[in-house]
C-alpha cells in the first residue's frame, strides 16, 4: 500500500498555532502537515520528575492538541533522542519536507544540524525559519559586519531597522485545513516519566504595562507582565508582542530588545556559556564557599531583600527583576562566589530560564560580561530595600518571621564591598 506523502512541522520553543512562522510555511506546502513534538531525553534526563517547566510544556501541548482535534487532526508526541526519533519516523512515513523554527543555543544548533544531515541523506528537504526573535544572527550588526557587544547602539540599530521594515504577523489559522487528518493518542504526563508540579506558570498579564516605567522596580506592586516563561516556550508571538509594545510602552519594548541582544551575544560568542565574555576577568580568585552558597540558596543571608528574592524563587519559580540584580550582585560581590554557581541555580529553578538571558544577566551582575555593570559597582542590599521596598511589603510576604527579630547579616556590607573590589583589582588581567 502506497504511503501518503506528507510534511512534518516540528514544534520546539514555539508552542502555539497562532502567528507561528515555521508552521505558516509548512501549511503553505503541497503536502498535508503532521505536527510533532519530541520530549527530548537529552534534556529531560537532567530534570527532576516534578519539574514545573515540563508541566507547562505538557499543558501547552494539550491546548494545541485540543485545537487540532476541532479540525479532525492531532499532535504526534514522541519521547526519546531526536535523531533516533527521526530515524523511526523516516521508516513510518513518506516524508517530503520537514519544517521547524530556529533555535540559537549551541546545543540546539548541534541537534538540528544532525537532524538536517539525516534528512538530507534521505533526500528530504529541511526548512528552518526565524520565529523566536524579530532580528536574528547577523541582522543587527555594526557597519563592519561585526556583532554589537554594547546594548545601547544595538538597541538603536534594532529600532532603526524595525521602524524601517516593520514586522509582519502571520495568520496561521486560515490554513488549518492543510493539517493531516489523524487521531494520535495524547499521552499522560506520567507516561512521559513526569508528575505534575505544584509550581505553576501564571497567565501573562499586560494590563499594567502602560505604567511599566514607573512601577517596574517595585516588587511589592506585582506589576510585571509574567510574560517571560511564555516567551521562553513560545506560547506567545514575539512579533505580536513587539508590535503591541511599540504602541504602548517604549520601556517595555527596550526589555524585549535586551532579550534579543543576549540571544545575539550567545549566538556570536558561544564561549559565554562557560567562560567570561571579558577574558581579562579570568584571574579573579573566587572564594566559592559552599556553606555561604547554601545560605544564599535557602534565603538565609540575613539581608531581607536577598532572602525574600531567593525564597520567592524557591517557592514559585519567579523572581522580580530588580531583586534578581540584588541577589546576583550579592552572590558575586559580597560572597565572591563565581557567577556560574548562581547561573546554574537559576537555571534549575527559574520558570523562564533561557540560556542566553540567564548567562548574560549573571555576567552583567558579576561585571565579567559584555556591557556589564563595572566591577566596583556593588549593590548595597539595605539601600536597595529602602529604595524599592520601603515599607517592607515584599519582604514580609516572603519572610513572615521578619518582624520577630531577623537574622544578622552573614557578612558586613562595607567589609564585603572592600574585599570584592580588592579581589577584582588583583584578579583582572591587564
Automatic annotation (TrEMBL):
Q: Which UniProt keywords apply?
A: Chromophore, FAD, Flavoprotein, Lyase
Instruction: Report the EC code(s) recorded for this entry.
Output: 4.1.99.3
- InterPro entries in alphabetical order: Crypto/Photolyase_FAD-like_sf, Crypto/Photolyase_N_sf, Cryptochr/Photolyase_FAD-bd, Cryptochrome/DNA_photolyase_1, DNA_photolyase_1_CS_C, DNA_photolyase_N, Rossmann-like_a/b/a_fold
Which residues belong to any copy of the Photolyase/cryptochrome alpha/beta domain?
A: 5-134
One term of GO molecular function: deoxyribodipyrimidine photo-lyase activity
Which EC main class describes this enzyme? lyase
Q: Signal peptide span per the entry?
A: none
Co-factor requirement: (6R)-5,10-methylene-5,6,7,8-tetrahydrofolate; FAD
Q: Name one Pfam family in it.
A: DNA_photolyase
Recorded superkingdom: Bacteria
- What family does the database annotate? Belongs to the DNA photolyase family.
Designated name of the protein: Cryptochrome/photolyase family protein
